[in-house]
From TrEMBL, chain A:
The keyword Repeat does not apply. GO terms for molecular function: NADH dehydrogenase (ubiquinone) activity; quinone binding. Its EC number is 7.1.1.-. This is NADH-quinone oxidoreductase subunit J. Keywords: Cell membrane, Membrane, NAD, Quinone, Transmembrane, Transmembrane helix. It comes from the Bacteria. The chain crosses the membrane at residues 6-25, 32-53, 59-76, 97-118, 138-159. It is an enzyme of class 7 (translocase). It is a multi-pass membrane protein. GO terms for cellular component: plasma membrane. NDH-1 shuttles electrons from NADH, via FMN and iron-sulfur (Fe-S) centers, to quinones in the respiratory chain. Couples the redox reaction to proton translocation (for every two electrons transferred, four hydrogen ions are translocated across the cytoplasmic membrane), and thus conserves the redox energy in a proton gradient. It is found in: Cell membrane.
UniProtKB/TrEMBL annotation, chain B:
One of its GO terms (cellular component) is NADH dehydrogenase complex. The keyword Membrane applies. The lineage of its organism: Bacteria, Pseudomonadati, Balneolota, Balneolia, Balneolales. The chain crosses the membrane at residues 13-32, 39-59, 71-95. Belongs to the complex I subunit 4L family. This is NADH-quinone oxidoreductase subunit K. PANTHER family: NADH-UBIQUINONE OXIDOREDUCTASE CHAIN 4L, NADH-UBIQUINONE OXIDOREDUCTASE SUBUNIT ND4L. The keyword Isomerase does not apply. It is found in: Cell membrane; Membrane. NDH-1 shuttles electrons from NADH, via FMN and iron-sulfur (Fe-S) centers, to quinones in the respiratory chain. The immediate electron acceptor for the enzyme in this species is believed to be ubiquinone. Couples the redox reaction to proton translocation (for every two electrons transferred, four hydrogen ions are translocated across the cytoplasmic membrane), and thus conserves the redox energy in a proton gradient. Its EC number is 7.1.1.-. GO terms for biological process: ATP synthesis coupled electron transport.
Length: 169, 111
């Protein structure tokens, strides 16, 4: 067995195992930390797919940003010290049936489709190529997404500061 | 047949990554449907976005969608960041109004 195969199975085991811990854990804080390990595993899978810049972006944005945001949301919505962070689970049987059906259908479609696979190109780095594309043919989406981020951050600040003014009234 | 299956297992190709992403998608769907905590539902949505992203990057590695797949994956990550910020601001507002983040308690739409 090659090294890449061993690494692939190791990281997909980390990803799927911690994702199932996230889904089936009763404690929401445990779920958030399991989500962190899932995101790190996904970043390692990106690195195995020769997407080094995307792996670094995943680590910075997801693990460093979104996860901290989720933990902040968790702590700010804690209902006093008496109620611990429990998550109520309902609809267990329909959810299990539906998600297993979706997973089996997807895996069946992925395995039976004849993908038009080419010989993989060995890449050293993708940063230069991505930068040239971002400043070339992808310049319009790049600018639009900058404006989107600005609007989203201003909207989030407006919505979350309205809480404190309503409390003082 | 047995040996070809073992050989298929020993060489991770496009299908292996697609299967991992399908399992992640199923787990995220399960979290979205069965949980009643808003933040758990948001984390399930993040899982689904990540599984879609693995698909794009795997296609960019193994098919002719060479760098475009990684570019789309990067845009997905940025949009997910914006979505998480806005969604958590909404969650804070909901908690302020209803004093609960259980989805079954949110039964009034008119503010």
């Amino acid at each position: 067995m090659e090294l890449t195969a061993i690494l692939f199975y190791l990281f997909s085991l980390v990803t799927i195992g911690s994702a199932s811990v996230m889904v089936f854990s009763k404690n929401v804080v445990h779920s958030a930390f399991a989500l962190m390990f899932t995101l790190i595993g996904v970043a390692a899978l990106y690195a195995l797919l020769y997407a080094d810049f995307l792996a670094a972006t995943q680590l910075l944005v997801y693990v460093g940003g979104i996860l901290i945001l989720i933990l902040f949301g968790l702590m700010l919505t804690g209902q006093g010290h008496t109620v611990s962070f429990k998550s109520v689970t309902v609809n267990m049987v329909p959810a299990t049936v539906l998600s297993i059906a979706a997973g089996v259908l997807l895996i069946y479609a992925f395995v039976t489709t004849g993908w038009n696979v080419i010989e993989p190109i060995e890449r050293d780095e993708t940063v230069y190529e991505m930068g040239m594309m971002l400043m070339g043919s992808y310049i319009l989406p790049f600018i639009v997404i900058g404006v989107l981020l600005l609007i989203a951050i201003i909207g989030a600040i407006l919505m979350s500061t309205r809480i404190s003014t309503e409390n003082t009234n | 047949m047995e040996s070809s299956f073992i050989q298929w297992l020993a060489e991770p190709a496009l299908t292996h990554f697609l299967i991992v992403s399908a399992i992640l998608f199923a787990l995220g769907l399960m979290a979205v449907i069965s949980k009643r905590n808003i933040i758990m539902v948001l984390m399930g949505v993040e899982l689904i976005l990540n599984s879609a992203n693995i698909n794009f990057v795997a296609f960019s590695r193994f098919t002719e969608l060479s760098m475009e797949g990684q570019m789309i994956g990067m845009f997905i990550i940025i949009i997910a960041a914006a979505e998480a910020a806005v969604a958590l601001a909404i969650v804070l507002n909901v908690f302020n109004r209803f004093k609960s983040i259980n989805l079954d308690d949110l039964n009034i739409l008119k503010g």
